Amino acid sequence: MNDIKIVKLDVAGQKENSRNIANVYKEVFGSDPWNEGYKCPECVNDNIYPLSFTGKFCPKCSLLGKKVELDEYWPVKQVISDFNNEMRKTGAICCIANDESKVIGFAWGYDMSVNEETDKHLEAPGLFKIIGRKNYRYIDEVAVLPKYRNMGIGKSLVTNICKNDNFQPILLRTKYNSPAFRMFLQFNGKVVLNITRDRVIMILNP
Ligand SMILES: [Zn+2]
């Protein structure tokens, strides 16, 4: 991690870096293990293709004799807008990892009090029943570009996001066996619920 710097962003920094963050987001979640690069507007759920996919049209629809153009799964504009919305939430915090001045990773999170609504928000039916009404520090996103993984950058980012004086337990929603999943296991995080599309909800007590 020699020249990698972790920077906590203030509001101006969030604005300044939002496009770079969105580009990293697109690259990370568009490749393995998520592969959310492109989606077909006509096919049902889970018909996704990685960013490395070079076809313009949906292969499944092509088999049915239809030419349907694939959509970007995470358009940069939409990610920027989502990011700006998340940064307005209570306790919102974003840290980036810089290699020289290039953003190569980020993590962001905010405070979340779990209630009946949380089940819907996290697509996690039954979560409230299992973990009860409590305040958490929710890790919304953590991403590091592939060639910078396994260097402790994700760990530093998450540690910075989780620093808070309230000693809130940490809540994470991720894909089973993703880099974030494996990192949370190393921290002694526990899976509390398996949800759709191979996602899991994990909790880490401070
Ligand atoms: Zn299709």
> Structural class from helices and strands?
alpha+beta
Please state the overall shape, judged from the principal axes of the Cα atoms: globular
CATH C-level class of the domain at 4-13 and 77-204: Alpha Beta
Span between N and C termini? 25 Å
Radius of gyration: 18 Å
Query: How much strand?
Result: 25-35%
Helix content: 25-40%
User: What CATH architecture of the domain at 4-13 and 77-204 would you give?
Assistant: 3-Layer(aba) Sandwich
Give the CATH superfamily of the domain at 4-13 and 77-204.
Answer: Gcn5-related N-acetyltransferase (GNAT)
Topology, number of strands? 10
What does the oligomeric state look like here?
A: single chain
Spans with pLDDT under 50 lasting ≥5 residues? none
Count of helices?
Answer: 7
Write the layout of secondary structure elements.
Elements: E1 4-8, H1 11-29, E2 38-39, E3 48-49, H2 59-63, E4 71-72, H3 76-86, E5 93-99, E6 102-113, H4 116-121, H5 127-131, E7 135-144, H6 153-162, E8 170-175, H7 179-186, E9 190-194, E10 199-204
Parallel strand pairs: 7-8
Antiparallel strand pairs: 1-5, 2-3, 2-4, 5-6, 6-7, 8-10, 9-10
Helix pairs in contact: 1-3
Zinc ion binds next to helix 2.
Describe the 3D structure.
This protein has 206 residues and is an alpha+beta fold. The protein has a domain at 4-13 and 77-204: Gcn5-related N-acetyltransferase (GNAT) (Aminopeptidase). It has helices at 11-29, 59-63, 76-86, 116-121, 127-131, 153-162, 179-186, and strands at 4-8, 38-39, 48-49, 71-72, 93-99, 102-113, 135-144, 170-175, 190-194, 199-204. Strands 1-5-6-7-8-10-9 form a seven-stranded mixed β-sheet, with helices on both faces. β2 (38-39) and β3 (48-49) form a beta hairpin. α1 crosses α3. The mean pLDDT is 91.
